[in-house]
Amino acid sequence: MRSLLAEAPRERLGLDAYLEDFDRYFWNSGATGFWKLERRQTFREAGVDSWEAFRRGEWQEALSLIADQEGHFESYFERITQSGFALHRVRVVEEPITPYLQWELHLLRLKEKHGERTRVLPKENLPGGESEGLLPEVVVLGELVMYEIIYDDDGNLAGGIKFTDVNVISKCREFIQGLHAKGEQLRSFFGRRVAPLPPPAINSAG
User: Fold this and answer.
1) How far apart are CA 51 and CA 99, in angstroms?
2) Strand ranges, E, within 2-93
3) 201 with 44: CB under 8 angstroms?
4) Using CA atoms, how far apart are residues 140 and 33, in angstroms rounded to an integer?
5) Given this model, what pLDDT does residue 133 score?
6) In angstroms, how far is CA 48 from the centroid of its own chain?
7) How far apart are CA 137 and CA 36, in angstroms?
8) What's the confidence (pLDDT) of residue 203?
9) What does the pLDDT look like over 88-97, one tens digit per residue?
């Protein structure tokens, strides 16, 4: 995928421009839908209450704050359904599971409950063994736009690289769809690998 993106025309967007552009296209994803590849094992979610509690080592508070979003996600995914599209996510997982990913998988489980179609894929099952380097963070919205999501060195969202070449978009979407088909349903993975985990250690949270 990296070689494909390297040769494609693109537009670099700063954080504010990326968020505005993304929102404009997101609600018009259409029947083709939303397809996201999530590869990194650690991000920062500054300003997200449950993540902030997780970072402070308040694990039960973090889980409680995730549960408090039930009503929000119920309404959010109802609007997505009414808009005529669905969300699909491939979450690549390395072992041992990082503290951040342990937190995120609890959040993704709630999203799955309300309609997000998430599949988990072990790093070892990635095609080609990532011979071109780590796969990028990519989200495809419908047929007309795709972004490589950019993060700074600390894992903070920093913007995106926008692609509009329909051939490149189609190939990347098919690649993500192939990974999705190979992945394990989040529900079963969560019950087997995440639910039994103890709270993450405070000094390694991230």
Assistant:
1) 11
2) 11-14, 34-38, 87-93
3) no
4) 8
5) 87
6) 15
7) 8
8) 61
9) 999 999 999 9
Q: What is the largest CA-CA distance in the chain?
A: 46
How far lies 5's CA from each of 14, 82, 128, 130, in Å? 18, 32, 17, 14
For residue 18, give the nearest of 150, 149, 159, 169 by alpha carbon. 159
Q: Are 36 and 187 in contact (CB under 8 A)?
A: no
Distances (CA, A) of 92 to 40, 76, 184, 189: 8, 24, 10, 12
Residue 199 CA from chain centroid, whole number = 22
Task: Find out whether 36 and 135 touch, Cβ atoms under 8 Å.
Answer: no
SS3 135: coil
The pTM for the full model equals 0.95
How far apart CA 106 and CA 193 sit, in angstroms, is 12
CA distance 181 to 68: 31
Residue 204, pLDDT > 90, answer no
Which residues, in sequence order, are CB contacts of 153 under 8 Å at separation 6+?
A: none
Query: How many Å apart are CA 97 and CA 38, to the nearest integer?
Result: 14
pLDDT > 50? residue 119: yes
From the list 138, 24, 142, the residue with the least C-alpha distance to 84 is 142
